[in-house]
Amino acid sequence: MSFARYIARGELARALDLMARGRVTYAPRREGDAVVFRPRAEGEEPLLARATVPPKGVIFPQSERLFAFIREKDPNDPGRTTVRLDSTVDIEPALIFGGRPCDARGFHIFDRVYLNGPHRDPYYAARREATVVVTLACTKAGSTCFCHWTGCGPADTTGSDILLTPVGSGDASGFVAVAVTERGGAVLEQAGLPEADAARSDAAQAAHAATLAALNAQSPAPDLSTTPDRLLECFGDADFWRDMSDKCLSCGACTYLCPTCYCFNITDENDGGDGMRGRRLRSWDNCMSSLFTREASGHNPRMGKALRLRNRVGHKFSYYPRLHEGVVSCNGCGRCITGCPVSVDIREMVVRATEPDAKETPNA
Fold it and tell me: What is the C-alpha to C-alpha distance for residues 330 and 261, in angstroms, rounded to an integer?
């Protein structure tokens, strides 16, 4: 489904109120030096700045309760204990506004694992189904953006329900809103927005021109068609991975800021000292942590940070594509580069693994 509507810049807050009727809206908000996704109040003017973090936490929370458990002793047999589970999950309909195409594409990466894999995840599925994703197209690329390397782009619609593209300038500025899915179309319809046609100064054509200019402003992408195989070939090259990880701190910022990282840990926590009540939690995990692969025996097959970095890069550009029809598990958002305290650049690793004789890493 695809049709376009026009939103004048001064009408954006009201349009969002109408689109989000009956839903909690999550939009970028500045907190200190960061821009994060937070619930938006009705009538609040939305921030259009690119968020420091992706919106994945709305659908895949950083920590969530899977179920609560209650142990009860049999009054007639004190040595016997039964366990009752409460797996009730209260999920509110939501709308995510202001993520970029690379952020929305991240949900597509999640979908392949949590919806279309051998085991459908009911928690993720419920939130995904209850959430409308309204994405803001990019009209300018940042220095660390490399979305065009990975099959994404400034106006990619993968994972989005509605794509908004900024057009015009000054008092004549606005947004062209295109419905990508039937759900997105229904949300646009309930907002009662005017069509983006010739009467709007060819707004639809202007939107296309703006995103095309952003794409053309980026340096040509390297050919990564052989990258999955080349990464496997250098799997045992200890010197290469040691060199790549030399300055890495194993802090995990790259994984927490990544819109496509989906690893988690499971913990059981008691709610009281008697241990009779508790809950099972699922929380994000970090493959760059030395504890990530530590086994119950105490053995850890990835003690060295070089091995952990090899796994992170290999998963995104080799293992995942081999399992998912060539789809790369990286969207080129560049947050892992900008958020790294020592400027480890995943682009350099990918290019050097793919083209060992490359003199320099192509910039976006």
Answer: 9
What's the one-letter identity of residue 158?
T
Q: Distance between CA atoms of 244 and 347, rounded to whole angstroms?
A: 11
Give residues with Cβ within 8 angstroms of 14, minimum separation 6: 43
Q: Exposure pattern of 109-141 as b/e (b: 16+ CB <10 Å)?
A: bbbbbbeeeeeebebbeebbeebbbbbbbbbeb
pLDDT per residue over 170-180, tens digit each?
777 889 999 99
> In the chain, which ranges are E strands?
4-8, 24-31, 34-39, 63-74, 77-86, 94-99, 131-136, 162-167, 174-179, 264-270, 277-284
Q: What is the pLDDT of residues 54-76, one digit of tens each?
A: 999 999 999 999 999 998 888 88
Strands (E) across 231-311 are located at 264-270, 277-284
Tell me which H or E stretch contains 244: helix 238-244
Alpha carbon 273 to its chain centroid, in Å, reads 38
Coil, strand or helix: which one is 310?
A: helix
Amino acid occupying residue 136: L
Tens of pLDDT, residue by residue over 138-193, are: 988 889 999 999 999 999 999 999 999 988 877 778 899 999 999 999 999 998 88
> The whole model's pTM is what?
0.90
**Tokens standing for 161?**
């329900």
Distance CA 217, CA 154 (A): 11
- Quote the strand ranges of 173-259, DSSP E: 174-179
